[in-house]
Structure formats: structure tokens, C-alpha cells
């Protein structure tokens, strides 16, 4: 688990294709690796990766085909800057929100506009994630814990303060850029809990409906 508070910005030092998968070397820059051992988790642009080698100035990680296909890591190249965060410990300050490092989908930057000293971004999310994104709720973008300001269908807005701009890769964002999105983990599990026994059925048998919400007491049944 992570907090979404970026600890350092590193760089992609090498990307080595291996049988459809990918081996990634990350130069971690100012990230303190003294307490990191083989098998530890480090989030790279919000993707939880396992350190399989520790050469001293960074780490190597294996990236599965599943991860490559479902995240924006495949758009990286040698020299790309990446957000880094080590896994939290029982004594870590939870300054952001609980982040699993399991990316739900890839979003796209639609627009970027100056707003006083901050920057306002509009982001298009995959349609299947829209139901998990709520105004003033939390979302993780490339590993950064952020607050959703407004929601319009599958698009939403975020406001980035100068400190976050300076200490993450967000200043590189331009319209058209693809980014990793992780929705609030509570929203994900709440949907499964509401399904009850229906959760064991194939998706084709239906998901959250008005009838199901009425059964659970969340809305008044329609006559």
C-alpha cells in the first residue's frame, strides 16, 4: 500500500523487452534506498513494482504483460521521468489516501489552464471508471493522491498547487498525454459488496441497478 505522496522523481534508465513482458531499470535519484531490500514494493507512476535487483543507484523490476497492457508504462522510454514512492509502513504519515498501486485504467489529459498560482487540468477517464469518480473524492494520478474538483460524465477536473507541480512529473502534462488512474479503493469494494450474491455471477448477468440499490435501502423503490 502507498499514500500517493511522491517521495522523489526518478528516471527510466533501461527498458528491456523479455518474451512479451518488460524488465525496467529505474534510477531513483534522491529516493533513499537504505531501507529497501529485494522483494520490496516501489510505486512507479502509481504502478506497484517489486524490486528484483538493487544495483545501488536504483532498482530493476519485472513488468508483466497484464501491467504493460493496462497502464501507461508502455509509453515510457529511456530517460522518461517518473514519480516514485516506497511502500508505506505502520509508522508512515497518511498524508494522501490509501493507494494500492493497482492501476484501474489509463486516462488522457484534455486541457490545462492557469488558475492563480495553481494549474487546473481536465482529464478524460475510461467510461467504465466514471462511476467511481466523485466530486471532492480522492483519485490517484501517476501515483499522486489528488482531490477531484468537478465531474462531468467520464471527465473530471483537478487543481494542482505549485508544490505538487515542482515535486512531481505533472509539470510535463500536456493535452493528449496518457496517465495512470487508480480510483478510490473504497469505491471499488463498495460496489462488490452491494452486489452481494450477484458478485459470484458473470458480469453479463448484471451489475449495480436501481433495483439493487433499492433492495439495499440506498434509494426509494420506483413504482
Describe this structure as you would to a colleague:
This protein is mainly beta and 223 residues long. The protein folds into 2 domains: 79 residues, Elongation Factor Tu (Ef-tu), domain 3; 79 residues, Elongation Factor Tu (Ef-tu), domain 3, CATH 2.40.30.20. Helices cover 13% and strands 38% of the residues. The protein has a 6-stranded antiparallel β-barrel with strand order 1-2-5-4-3-6. It is globular, with a radius of gyration of 19 Å.
Write the layout of secondary structure elements.
Layout (H helix, E strand, L loop, with lengths): L7 E11 L2 E7 L13 E4 L2 E7 L4 E6 L1 H6 L10 E6 L18 E11 L2 E7 L13 E4 L2 E9 L2 E6 L1 H6 L10 E6 L1 H11 L14 H6 L8
Antiparallel strand pairs: 1-2, 1-6, 2-5, 3-4, 3-6, 4-5, 7-8, 7-12, 8-11, 9-10, 9-12, 10-11
What does this entry show, briefly?
The protein is mostly beta strands and 223 residues long. 13% of the residues lie in helices and 38% in strands.
